Amino acid sequence: MRDYISHVAPFLSDFAEETLMVSDAMGYESNPDFLIDRSNFNNNLIMYVLSGCLVAEQYGETHEILPGHGILMDLRDTHKYYFMEKGHSEIIWLHFRGTPVDAVINHLHTGNMLPLRFEDASFEEHFAALYRLAAAKQLPDEFDFSCAIYSLLMHVCKTARINEPDGMDSFALAASRYIYAHLDEPAGLDAFAGHMKMSKYHFCRRFRQEFQCTPLEYIQRQKINKAKRLLIYTRLSIAEIACQLSFYDQSHFSRVFTQLTGVSPGKFRKG
């Protein structure tokens, strides 16, 4: 599924084009066949992984980006990016450009820091707030919007990490990947434990040690996290989202969503 906003700020003045940070498009991507392979695209790009794994190739290097992490790329140079695990990966992304952006990008090039990888648990929150404004056509003027892009860019640079952190152990990583791969299916412990080659008892015990909750509680939370993204970034109805995530019906989905977030799906979508 792809949903995006083009011409985020369509009525830019000549002054804005020459001196401010501007964005031509921003969006959400979960198309299993997602693949971009191009060069000489006069823009810069921030991508942030919500689930699954994004692979980015540039300057002879290959980067695997996991959930909670992102990457900043200069698209003027040859680049390629795609989902490693078809069918269950999600990203949010922002194209941006401008004279002030060029100064930052050139500085990063000088230090051989591009593509720039970063880890930031709060990035999605900042991005979603900006996306809601753009989708509702309630963006502030071009100066405030330039400041918002600048804030995102500086936040990325501040939280950047050259190397991937150690992160999860092999059990936690394998369990997380299995959950994301089957998030749209009904939750079932037998198949999950079998995939991990453990008895259901030992699997549940180990899972609780790693995640401080039961497998079904964790799966439920991840389903609701994905539902929140679908409510923000897509035009799917609440009933369609409930069906996609394999809830019994819309009523069941709404009840679980409200229990875990404190608001109904409808109120959450309205912001």
UniProtKB/TrEMBL annotation:
- Name all HTH araC/xylS-type domain ranges: 173-271
What PROSITE patterns does its record include?
A: HTH_ARAC_FAMILY_2
Q: Which GO terms describe its molecular function?
A: DNA-binding transcription factor activity; sequence-specific DNA binding
Q: Which key words tag this protein in UniProt?
A: DNA-binding, Transcription, Transcription regulation
Name it.
Answer: Arabinose operon regulatory protein
Q: What organism is recorded for this protein?
A: Eisenbergiella tayi
Per the record, the gene is araC_9
